[in-house]
Amino acid sequence: MKVRASLVLLVVLHGSVSHAVIYDITQQSGLIAPAFRGDANTTFFGWNEGQFFGQPVPSSVTRILNNPVTSTGNVGLGNGVQFYQDDRSSSPFVMIGSSAGNIYTGIGPIGKQAAATLVAPASPGSVDSGFTTIVIQGRTTTAGGFSSLDLLLSNYPVFSSINGVSPSFIIAGNASNQGQWWAQYNVPGSATNYTIGLTFPGGSTTAPISIAGMSVDTYWSPTSYANVSAVPEPSTIALLLLGCAVFAVFRFGARGLLCRAK
């Protein structure tokens, strides 16, 4: 998994800020409450399992992701939260929901790629200044039956950039045998809301995506980004860093230290 290894290293390098709080996804049993949640100039919202299409869950012909009421957090639709699939007004639309009320794109006739838009309200102390951190988390259903953990980890949302800033992204199996991901933006400046595009994989040859829970946190500070990040198990990172060190010694040490020993 070369791509996943490079993503892990990216987070490690960007997480070298002093006093950073680093969360190990493999040790979590659900979505993480970032250390800054509840502080001044922060917002938080999300959806629990089965809450993405309202209650009761509509039938498939009317099951459209179209701004569901948030089931957790301190802001909601009345504060500017939006979450909708881009073709919600088209006929036909791409069905991306399961009968359990979770976001799902499968293989076969319903397995079409879908796009959605997420609008996250923020609470900056001063607009157009400072530093903004946005953390978007999600988890899948529990692995079992047709959905092995490897299958659940193989497909996930792809997030657009914000003002040219792409998110760092980590996905791993958590302690509840679910796929869990953490996407983090560090965006210069501030705004009262942020619009993010999501692409859900799908198609006759792709594995399904399953999202059973999702949360969005925003943080603003006049001086710095939030000192938080997520990683897989520490042993994975240690091996990656060891490999980088060995490579560096092999490539540069032989021509530097060893040559000077002559």
Description:
The protein has 262 residues and is of the alpha+beta class. It has one domain. The protein is 16% helix and 31% strand. It contains four helices and 14 strands. The strands form four sheets. A six-stranded antiparallel beta sheet has the order 3-2-13-7-10-9. A four-stranded antiparallel beta sheet has the order 4-6-11-8, with no helix packed on it.
What labels would you give this structure?
262 residues; alpha+beta; 6-stranded antiparallel β-sheet; 4-stranded antiparallel β-sheet; disordered N terminus; disordered C terminus
- DSSP E strands, number: 14
Q: Could you give the distance between the termini?
A: 40 Å
> What best-fitting shape do the alpha-carbon axes yield?
globular
Radius of gyration: 20 Å
Number of domains: 1
Summarize the helix and strand pattern as letters. Answer: HEEEEEEEHEEEEEEEHH
Number of helices: 4
Write a concise synopsis of the structure shown.
With 262 residues, the protein is α+β, with helices and mostly antiparallel strands.
How do the strands and helices of this protein lay out in sequence?
Layout: H1 2-14, E1 21-24, E2 42-47, E3 72-73, E4 82-85, E5 103-105, E6 114-121, E7 131-142, H2 149-154, E8 158-159, E9 168-173, E10 178-188, E11 193-200, E12 209-211, E13 213-221, E14 228-231, H3 234-253, H4 257-260
Parallel strand pairs: 1-14
Antiparallel strand pairs: 2-3, 2-13, 4-6, 5-12, 6-11, 7-10, 7-13, 8-11, 9-10
